[in-house]
Amino acid sequence: MIVQRTMRNVVTALGLAEVKRKVSLLIRDDIRRRFRGRFADYTAAMSNVRPGHLAGYDHAEIADVAFEQMCAVTLWDYPVLFWLGKLLPRYDNILDAAGHMGTKYRAWRDLLDLPADFEWIVYEVPAIAEAGRRRALKDGLGSLRFHDDLAAVPPSDVMLGSGLLQYLDEPFAAFMRRLPRLPEHLLLNKVAVRDGETVVTLEVFPGAEVPYLVLGRAAFEASLAELGYKIIDQWEIGDLSFKHPAFGQSSSQGYYARLDPQRNQ
Question: How far is residue 7's CA from residue 13's CA, in Å, rounded to a whole number?
Fold first, then answer.
């Protein structure tokens, strides 16, 4: 009750618009402090990880970092939920690429009307996939399936990539071509993009630093078209957009894209 009264007093004194502005500034300041440097490519960023820090994401030690936060529903989840609500009733599985320990399934399962035999397939790096298997078994989440070999994942007509593209060590088109077949529907969220060329920075985690790509927007969207996808919907996530001291402004985007039905796979 004390916290509620305090928040009401703050909102009354500052006004709702001002509170929202200050919260947004705090979020953006936190994002800016998470990144370090500008590097020529993924390999160069990995070689510049500071001593005493784990390099990259494939470490069990960082599997639990921000896990509870990632399992919460956020405002920028809702465009994805809108499209999943239309798509998933037609299918029996989804591929969640870079789905961590099934965090989106955990966040959204009560918001999506999924049948008991629906399979939520998570592709992750080996250390995170193994941690996800153990946690799912402990939590009794039988719908979660974990894979660390992209070529071996079951075919799926719907692919989710929420926070995927900024951590890839290869071009997105090359990643997609390693799938058994291209999914018909592609939902990408929290895609870091900028005007101009792709740049690489390091994201700082507790005890680790991970290469983080901010994609050249025009080239990335052209790569979707080259794969045969048409962008049906897109949205900007203002609270995740930020200005990096080494390369300037970036924005966070979401996309729903559909494979051209005339494409010969």
Answer: 10
Residue 7 has pLDDT above 70, yes or no: no
Helix (H) or strand (E) run with residue 226 in it? helix 217-227
The C-alpha angle 227, 232, 237, rounded to 5 degrees, equals 100
Give me the mean pLDDT over the 253-261 stretch: 94
> Which pLDDT score is estimated for 13?
54
pLDDT for 120-158, tens place per residue?
999 999 999 999 999 999 999 999 999 999 999 999 999
The angle formed by the CA atoms of residues 171, 175 and 178, to the nearest 5 degrees, is: 145
Q: CA distances (Å), 106 to each of 86, 92, 111, 155, in order? A: 19, 17, 10, 22
67-100 burial, b at 16+ Cβ within 10 Å, e below that, comes to: eeebbeeeebbebbbebbeebbeeeebbbbbbbb
Beta bridge partners of 36: 202
**Predicted confidence (pLDDT) per residue in 13-45, tens digit:** 556 665 445 444 444 455 556 899 999 999 999
Q: Which helix (H) or strand (E) holds 236?
A: strand 229-236
Query: What is the rounded distance in angstroms from the CA atom of residue 212 to the CA atom of residue 246?
Result: 13
pTM of the model: 0.85
Domains of the chain: 44-259 (3.40.50.150)
Inter-CA distances, 230 with 141, 188, 225, 233, 257, Å: 34, 13, 6, 9, 5
Structure tokens of 226?
A: 């080259």
